[in-house]
Amino acid sequence: MIAAVSALMASCSSGSMNITGSVDDYPKIWPDYKDAVIPSNIAPLNFSYSGEGEAVLIIDGKYRINARNGLFKITKRTWKELMGQEHIEFMIASDESGEWMSYKPFQINVSKDEIDPYISYRLIPPGYQGWKRMGIYQRDLTGYKQTPIYENKLGNENCVNCHTPCNGDPEKRVFHLRADFGGTILANDGTLEKLNTKTDSTISALVYPFWHPSGKYIAFSVNSTRQSFFSHDPNRIEVFDSASDVVVYDVEKKELFWSPLTKTSSEFETFPAFSPDGRWMYFCSSKAVEKMPDDYAKAKYSLKRIAFNAEDCSFGDSLETVFDAAAMDRSVSFPRVSPDGRFLCFTCHGYGNFSIWHKDADLWMIDLETGEASPMGPANSSDVDSYHSWSRNGRWIVFSSRRDDGLYTKPYICHVDEEGHVSKPFLLPQKNPKRYYHNLMFSYNIPEFMVGKVRTNQARSASVIRTETGVDVNVRTVMKP
Amino acid sequence: MRNRTIESCAFLLLAAVMIIAACASGPNWFLVAREQQQLFTFDLNYAADLMWSVGGLTSLIARFIVQFFHSPTIASIAISILAFLTVLPAWLPFRRQDKAASAFPLCASLAVSVMVMSNLLPLHFDAVIAFLLSALALCAYSGISRHRSATGIFIIAALYLAAGPSAFLFALSASAYDLLGEGGKGSIITAVLFPAVALMLCLASLFFGVVPTAATAIGPAFYCEPTAKLPAYIQAAWYSLPLVVLLVGAIPKIIHSKIIGITVATIFSFALAIALTTLSGYGKRSPQANICQYEYLCGNERWDELEKASRPHMYQYVDANYHNLALAQQGKLAETLFKYPQHTSQSIIFLMKSEQSNPVAAHVLFAMGNVAAAQNIAFNSMQSFCGYCPEMMKIVTMTDIMRGSYNTAEKYLDMLEKAPHYRAWARKYKTFLYDDKAVENDPVLGNGRKNLQCSEGFVIDPNPMDDLNRILEVNQSDAKAMEYGLSFLLLEKDITNVQKFIDRHYGTAAMPELPTPAQEALLFFSDYSINVLGDDSVDRQYCLNHGVTQSTISLFERFQQETLDNSGAAPQSFRNTYWYYMLYE
Prior knowledge:
The complex is a heterodimer. Chain A is mainly beta.
């Protein structure tokens, strides 16, 4: 092995360089892409060697890349050639006090399952109450380009949140604005509409959205939310609801309706999500906790579902508990069913619903055919692993993780095969990931896959946001149970 | 030759007057505060990120200059030089047209525009640089004799990219210059063409979502905080450049006598300068300037000066917070509390409903040893106009080190290390990273880490006293927390808890002696509980055992006597006592 690499070194090197020894360990690299499964249409996974001294990277014994300030930058051409293989072998050699030593080689596995070409997300300071600049952005996963969908500099630095596309469709989206020019923006096949969603019958304006697959309805939670800062808990913050319900918005009729079973005072219902066939609405539900914030840890959300008939907007007459987290003294959030309807991914944590501030938050998956639930082992870390979204082919999940520094959330992507086996995730690639993420003063929030690029000019969005007073959303007078 | 000497003398005089005036008028606290609105880092990526945006070069220059404003003297001299550098290139084009004399007073008035713009905090310093670049562009343009239209358009495009709406300002100025100069027919074309091109470019930025409104695309609002309303005098200051060009060109056409022309120009320039300074209140001391000064003194730990500066304004909660912080940092808060006018516990800490930005609360909470609450508020306050407020970032960094969140602290320290003024500080604190022992042995960091061992609870819920009690349960050696706790209770007039506090903490390392106001409160409580509640558990002997001195007892007896003698009226000679505050404030 050493001889082969030495030969390559000699053939490629501009200077003399011979590997004379080896280290029986993997090299320290960041991001840690070792053994990750990646899609063949992802941008080159550049990474940095964290050790001292000069270093070279040998890929598959064919390509040699010299580190520049520790960074191995892989050209698009080389990457394209490598993406035709199932496994790629990376070997790093470094100059250890004048002697070139090779580290144990590692692999990156290439899946034939392509990934959706775009993700959208919000970039926000991981702050507690304050912010200044924030925005919703989209990122081309086949390259490194990030473009703004809407930046709050265009709206008096208002809060912009919960950007959610329908089935990954970039032209069918919804997002909210708080503070100045408040409202909900609904982008629907080329039209942009501003909605005023607070009604006398609901406890708040609409909050966490999820589109019905038909695109005709959007399920939302309405929440009375507050947050408090812990005196020393590593979680730092607790965000809690003192009331919440789940309602559905009829996009065409601009009306809200709900089931009496999803809007109760005895339960906190939140985080709705439809099944891909549109016949079920999943949501998280906890017994109402009276003394908030004192009893914040008593809120234990379980996963429930109710039948939904999109034809006549009726609901089933009973709730089904899909995952009784409360019985396990746990709590769940963000249910998301895979596009093939087989798996349901959710976040599981000790209590409450705002998992991004819970270091024990992990991703779990239920096989809806068998009802078996288990943690998504390789995807999880010792820190927060939370908000997730499925790619349209159901083979990739993008999620938010605080595994790197405990505060700044970054998007990780993992592969899930047909049987629900999860692979080690990889960090969203960047040209120079170490420098980029270290200097970044924002968290990635609510990453969502999209099948294409949002074409709506953000100036147009800003014009609607700033100039339109908004359409008042009504409550349906006759609701079917 | 003679003219040149006069001109040189005039400009030297102007420069000297401006610099002397800047130095003599004392620190300009608004300028100094700008240094805390940004964190300029010597980093190619930082520069590249800025340069990629419209107006990026201006931002880069502005931020580079502003980083030196941590020194009030440098700030004052720098703004004088920038003002002078604006006047000179604005005047030079008229020298070429033989209008030097009448142009001088009018161009000199542009210095006032620069001063006024630099004095409004929500207006980024970029506006000053953009204004200067417009004047420089005009100077460059006026010196070109061939292909003037093409060159002008090139300058507009370049200026637009480098400085944003400054391009429109230049276009207006160049049009006025050409139109009222000796440009002939061509000048009429450029007079229309230049503003049209500039307007087109500026409006393109609106179309592409660079700016939110047409006003922002074209005018000085581009450089202003989006949430701030731009005052009319800033618009006047901004457009003073084309106005001056217009006046210099128009006056000789209307008034043929050179002397009268110069007189009229001088009158105009004085009128402009007076209007701008009056409308902006330039040079007047304002509450906002006070806060800027306090922040500077606080950041430099000049507690004695902070105490003196904030003393006259203690009727305002925020000013009182700074004053009491200065006292606490000098270890004399509880002892001297009632020597100064205090108005409820909000004089200790004034928490606003929205904690978007409240630097003083972050400083106070940090001094209190309330690590989590300080971090929360400092983090919110860290998000400043043009980047990150360095002083707040320092608090966030220290609290992260206390927490053991070394990865996050390292992120901030790396950033601070790239800023020359904060490099030494960052390097010092980097030595604590991943070294728990060093953290525990450091007086400040170690104290904070000890405080973090308090029992869990939500901070500032409902007020900081609960947090202080929890902190003092685990760290009785935190003298500042002790002073703040006692002072808070005294100002709350919560004598029952003052007694309990003394009972719990008197004689500990942080309270070896009982501060006079606390002695007064304890005597008051003793008197009240014996005579009103019939409870003699806190009697004179108890008071003596808990640090009350004989002289305070004698004083209390005198106070009681005088109050009786005055039939309950406030005895003015006791104004500085707890008793007076308790009964009459």
